[in-house]
Write a structure and sequence with these properties.
Layout: H1 3-11, H2 19-25, H3 33-48, E1 51-63, H4 89-101, E2 106-111, H5 120-129, H6 134-148, E3 152-156, H7 162-169, E4 174-176, H8 201-213, E5 218-224, H9 230-247, E6 250-257, H10 274-288, E7 294-295, E8 315-319, H11 336-345, E9 349-353, H12 358-361, H13 372-378
Parallel strand pairs: 1-2, 1-8, 1-9, 2-3, 3-4, 4-5, 5-6, 6-7
Helix pairs in contact: 1-2, 2-9, 3-10, 4-6, 8-9, 9-10
């Protein structure tokens, strides 16, 4: 009997996998993959029920400038490159107001890490805006979203210290930082995180830990297929589990698959297979337990995304009726009507959530006082978006 088959047999006894068993389960043979998925689905159903959620959002790429040069990133730009841009306050307001007219409720801010440390052009822009740092400008942009639209900000600004986290907490209902991996090996020359100082795992883990101390509902996750081993993949999931057990603030764990793109250094790097994605999702569910929200972006699995439901996820992430996925612009989001149909056909209830998950929306300690009335007005007694605000139901 192989290690994978032994680990799978142990699942039938109701025992959660050890680290070594989780590693083995990532290699479970195809003829027993269904057993792994069934075990993960049962854990999901026992903890989360049969609701599959999504957030209707607008993607706000505040700046594409970044001081990191990750091997897989097509979002970042240097000044002067095609696509290099930092949004003005007027552009931010126009975008979120357009999203509001389409029923979006989340403003997802994505931006590069500390571009002011590398680019004098960006420092000049920030100075004209009255700021020294990109994070300070981000706070202003989040304030504008709150004052000029009904949307709720969720910012993914990269590595942060306590002062910036605390300041952004006042104007964000939730925040996020992808851990991606705990592998320092990927920082070596020629690897995925070569020339990426903000991808040092210890720095990212410190940011996630500080968010826990500040009681910020936080999104994190792993990026699979960037050169990590199965052991490193499991270690990243266990690091996330440890942080959540310590602070209870990890509202969502994303399992995201690498996608090759023409202009990136890793353009010829092989993508994870659909089987790898299913196995990783299932192992994440088994390691993290039934109560944690686990997401996989449907647009990164093409037409095969409904198969992900069997692996234990309970959330599709943010879906925009207006903006593309600026991180993966070649991969359009499915239409909400199609996503709903696929979810309900598989026997699940399809529900809209805010950028703050239902179980955190009802806990005042996880939300700045000034944001509580806005959240309360949008959610029902279970923390989901009130059905009268779910405009997609008429489609």
């Amino acid at each position: 009997m192989t290690a994978a088959e032994h680990a799978l047999d142990r699942l039938h006894s109701g025992a959660g996998p050890s680290r070594d068993e989780a590693v083995a389960l990532l290699g479970v043979p195809d003829d027993r993959l269904g057993e792994l998925l069934q075990a993960a689905g049962a854990v999901r159903d026992s903890g989360r029920g049969r609701q599959i959620t999504f957030s209707k959002k607008v993607f706000v790429p505040l700046t594409t400038l970044c001081r990191d040069y990750c091997g897989y990133c097509t979002f970042r730009r240097d000044p002067g490159e095609p696509g290099a841009h930092t949004m003005t306050p007027e552009e931010v307001v126009a975008l979120v107001q357009a999203g509001a007219r389409l029923g979006a409720k989340e403003a997802l801010f994505s931006l590069g890490d500390r571009p002011e440390a590398l680019f004098p052009e960006h420092r000049d822009f920030l100075k004209r805006m009255g700021h020294r740092t990109t994070l300070g400008y981000l706070r202003q942009a989040c304030e504008l979203v709150l004052t000029e639209s009904p949307l709720l900000p969720h910012a993914n600004p990269g590595v942060m210290g306590e002062r910036d986290l605390a300041a952004l907490r006042e104007v964000n209902v939730s925040m996020g930082l992808m851990l991606e991996t705990t592998s320092e090996r990927l920082l070596r020359p020629g690897m995925a995180h070569d020339r990426a100082p903000d991808k040092v795992p210890a720095r990212r883990l410190r940011t996630i830990e500080m968010a826990g101390k500040l009681q910020i509902p936080f999104t994190t996750g792993i990026l699979i297929g960037i050169g990590e081993t199965r052991e490193e993949r499991v270690d990243a999931l266990l690091a996330i589990r440890d942080l959540h057990e310590g602070f209870g603030h990890i509202q969502e764990v994303i399992i995201q698959n690498f996608r090759a793109k023409p202009r990136i250094p890793m353009a010829r790097h092989p993508e994870p297979t659909a089987g790898e994605m299913l196995r990783t999702l299932a192992v994440a569910r088994l390691l993290l337990g039934g109560s944690v929200n686990i997401q996989a972006p449907p647009n990164l699995s093409g037409d095969d995304y409904p198969a992900l439901l069997a692996a234990g996820l309970n959330d599709w992430g943010g879906i925009s009726p207006l903006t593309v996925d600026h991180i993966n612009p070649e991969a359009p989001w499915p239409q909400i009507a199609a996503l709903r149909h696929a979810t309900e056909t598989a026997g699940f209830e399809f529900r809209e959530r805010l950028a703050i998950y239902p179980e955190y929306a009802s806990r005042p300690e996880f939300l700045a006082e000034g944001l509580r009335p806005r959240v309360k007005a949008l959610v029902d007694g279970d923390g989901y978006v009130r059905k009268e605000y779910e405009r997609w139901r008429q489609w």
